[in-house]
Design a protein that fits this description.
The structure holds two protein chains of two kinds. By secondary structure, chain A is of the alpha+beta class. Chain A has two helices and six strands. The longest helix of chain A has 9 residues. Chain B folds into four domains: 169 residues, Rossmann fold (3-Layer(aba) Sandwich); 85 residues, Orthogonal Bundle (Helix Hairpins), CATH 1.10.287; 144 residues, no CATH class; 163 residues, no CATH class. The chains are: A alpha+beta, B alpha/beta.
């Protein structure tokens, strides 16, 4: 893996379209956490923000699957921007 | 060795089909069982249960299609059903359908199943898509590292079905050995898991694997916590409780371990040419804020207009046939069996021909929606629609069904099936009746035209605003009452696009439609019979029928809205059909002197002359403007027509929800009617 940490944690909803990130943590109730985990959102997972208009839901790519994620949900996911390619 | 081998009835082997959504699970099920299917419901739950059978080498296999689930957690009813079936019913074999083009995601369910040790094979579906994406899967290595048989398939092209049924025959009843390598977390959580297992030992019900239960506890799965709490005494349970981390780290450790297992397998067996996101031009257009919105509107409108044109054509075609039928019944049985003849001529035939037209529309909409879902466009449209719908607390997927309500509310209610979350689905089903159907719009337009000529635009705007406000209120009210609980927002997969699979689409729609006709049909038939009888007896006339008697009895209530018994009865009639309210007005006010029950009059007036001047002038002289305003608003929020109520029952499978929504709408109707009347009194003197 070739990654260069930019060392900047932020919530996923603030990530710009086209940027790669690695999930640091996910908050929220247990149900949300389990649902997210079942669809690939876990700490250490890499993702690409495909589309973020600044309002409404985002589209992210989890190295396998495209997922539309509500803005409220994206706020609960803390990521670190990273130059990263899928394994 | 296993108990289920002993208890298996001779000649009957149970096979469960499991898999995540969008893995082509239904297609596998359809091809495996052919037309030999049965649709029911999981006991006590409003989730569809599909069962089918196939025979191979003289042995009959019962195939149960489990709901599509991402995992086996207590996140939703669907997941609970799948997990209970797998654990408690102990099927002889579980076929887990996996999307070969998205292995990381779709093997997650397999990883969890591994900890159950249940007999299992993998249907590695969508091999064609995987190939196109440049994935090379070394099947031998893949099978070896997973430890269960793997059948490569392209179910949409019918490739691999026979090999699958052969593998099913071979593997039924063979338990999967528990793999040490799957899927326990390491480090501190490995210790914790071990300690958990030691503590719950002896308390775990027989059907469950202790290792899996411990994993689920670490995930803080609510269902498993409840179960174990019941199994253990308070003190013992508290010692378990104390072990569980109070943040989310336990859940992630378990999830991470599953993904690690998956990554290991894939590292050994899959070569990717490239793993980058591929987005077609169409996808970019479909998910762009501006072009996606336009496309969504165009697509929705196209489907709507097409269904309307086809349905209207069918109604025009069938109308002479129905009219002849009525003539024939009256000629042959009118004298000898007058009651029966009237019932058929004025009740059965008119109702049937009305239902026919509506059915064609609904069927068309179902086909269209199913098509959009199958090719993968629907989630994209939902993603765009979510920007707007979420403002009134509804999911993006509710847009299309709600829009179809402008054609017929039944289409909305039935269309809500595309919404996965039960909560959101129920909410949309209840809200669907806020959308004014053509019957409501025609009737209201007529009333507004007569009574509010110059200020008509003001009333139209007021009614629209009232609808939007009420939709918002209903949505929030549901959130805070019957649908209380944590809101789980959108995490929606956008599956790859693919060519439509007509066989699956047709089978799905046809099955749902016929099952609807059978089930809701009996309720609808009953209501038609009641309405016919109410508006026919005792004298064969609506003006002095029991319906009118009911109207008179409720007149004091009507007076709160400034309505006399006649206007109130018309409002009751709206339950039969919204257009029928217009005809009832004409009849009850004696403008149109016609004999017969309401249903029969509907038939004669299937294309009512809305702008009839005489009716208008007469009404304007007999009903005050505040009363008319009350009628308009009361009708706008009135209980949906009987057929929609039938559809609500069919979709919720709950008498409580059906009756509850009927009472809710009746109350709304009354409240808005009273409010409109009093506002009307302020502005209009007569």
């Amino acid at each position: 893996m070739n990654m260069k940490a930019v060392n900047e944690d932020m919530s996923l909803d603030r990530m710009k379209s086209g940027s790669w990130a690695v999930i640091q943590s996910i908050s929220g109730d247990k149900k949300f956490v389990r649902r997210a985990a079942g669809r690939g959102f876990t700490p250490e997972a890499a993702l690409l923000v495909i589309q973020n208009f600044g309002i409404g839901p985002l589209i992210v790519f989890l190295c396998d699957t495209q997922v539309a994620l509500g803005r409220g949900e994206a706020k609960k996911i803390i990521v670190r921007r990273q130059q990263h390619e899928c394994e | 060795m296993s108990a289920n081998e002993l208890s298996r009835p001779a000649g009957e082997i149970t096979v469960a089909i499991a898999g995540q959504p969008n893995t082509g699970k239904s297609t596998v099920f359809n091809f495996l069982t052919g037309s030999n299917q049965h649709v029911g419901n999981w006991p006590g739950i409003t989730v569809e249960k599909k069962e089918g059978r196939f025979v191979r080498d003289g042995i009959s296999y019962r195939v149960v299609d489990l709901p599509g689930t991402y995992s086996l957690s207590a996140n939703s009813k669907e997941e609970m059903i799948a997990r209970d079936f797998v654990i408690k019913q102990a099927p002889d074999l579980i076929v887990v359908v996996v999307d070969a083009s998205q292995l990381t995601r779709s093997l997650y369910l397999v990883a969890e199943m591994m900890s159950l040790g249940a007999p299992m094979i993998l249907a590695l579906n969508m091999m064609d898509v995987a190939e196109k994406k440049g994935l090379a899967i070394d099947l031998g290595a893949f099978e070896k590292s997973i430890g269960v048989p793997v059948v490569p398939m392209t179910a949409s092209k019918r490739i691999g079905i026979d090999v699958l049924s052969e593998s099913i025959a071979k593997r039924a009843g063979v338990r999967t050995p528990l793999l040490e390598t799957c899927c326990n977390p390491d480090g501190e959580y490995a210790d914790l898991l071990q300690r958990l297992q030691n503590t719950i030992k002896g308390y775990v019900p027989e059907d469950y694997r202790i290792g899996w239960v411990a994993q689920k506890l670490l995930e803080e799965d609510s269902g498993m916590i409840d179960l174990m709490q019941k199994q253990m005494d308070e003190q013992k349970w508290q010692s378990v409780r104390k072990m569980l981390p109070d943040d989310n780290r336990g859940a992630f450790a378990v999830a991470r371990a599953r993904y690690d297992w998956i990554h290991n397998i894939l590292a050994n067996s899959v070569v990717r040419e490239k793993n980058e996101v591929h987005r077609s031009l169409f996808d970019k257009v479909a998910t762009n804020l501006l072009s996606g919105t336009i496309l969504g509107m165009v697509v929705t409108l196209t489907g709507f207009v097409l269904a309307v044109i086809i349905a209207f054509g069918c109604v025009v075609m069938i109308h002479p046939l129905a009219a002849n039928g009525i003539q024939m019944v009256q000629n042959t049985a009118g004298q000898s069996l007058p009651l029966l003849a009237d019932f058929i001529a004025q009740g059965v035939i008119p109702a049937l021909s009305m239902i026919f037209g509506v059915s064609v529309f609904i069927f068309g909409i179902m086909l269209f929606t199913s098509f959009l879902e199958d090719i993968g466009y629907l989630p994209r449209m939902a993603y765009i629609a979510d920007m707007f719908m979420s403002r009134i607390g509804l999911p993006g997927k509710s847009f299309m069904p709600l829009f179809m309500g402008f054609g017929c509310n039944i289409a909305s209610v039935m269309g809500c099936r595309v919404i996965e979350s039960t909560r959101q689905r129920f909410k949309t089903i209840i809200i669907a009746s806020h959308v004014p159907c053509p019957g409501v719009m025609v009737t209201i337009a007529f009333m507004i035209g007569i009574f509010f000529g110059p200020v008509a635009p003001v009333i139209v705007v007021a009614a629209t605003v009232a609808l939007l406000v009420q939709t918002y209120i209903t949505s929030r009210l549901l959130d805070h009452t019957v649908l209380r609980g944590a809101e789980t927002g959108m995490i929606m997969e956008l599956p790859p696009y693919h060519m439509p699979n007509w066989q699956t689409i047709w089978a799905h729609v046809w099955r749902r439609f016929t099952s609807f006709v059978q089930k809701a049909g009996s309720l609808i038939a009953f209501i038609i019979a009641v309405i016919w009888a109410l508006s026919y007896f005792p004298n064969g006339n609506m003006v002095d029928s029991y319906l009118a008697v009911v109207g008179k009895a409720f007149e004091p209530l009507g007076m709160l809205m400034g309505m006399d018994w006649r206007l109130l009865t018309c409002l009751f009639v709206a339950f039969f059909s919204k257009e029928a309210a217009l005809i009832a007005i004409a009849v009850l006010y004696g403008i149109q002197i016609e004999e017969g029950a309401l249903t029969g009059l509907m038939m004669d007036n299937i294309f009512p002359e809305v702008g009839n001047d005489a009716v208008g002038r007469f009404l304007a002289g007999n009903v005050s403007r505040p009363s008319a305003l009350a009628f308009i608003f009361a009708l706008l929020f009135s209980i949906p027509c009987y057929a929609t109520v039938g559809a609500i029952y069919y979709e919720t499978k709950s008498l409580k929800w059906t009756i509850g929504s009927a009472i809710y709408y009746t109350t709304l109707s009354l409240v808005w009617g009273i409010a409109a009347y009093h506002v009307g009194l302020l502005f209009f003197t007569s």
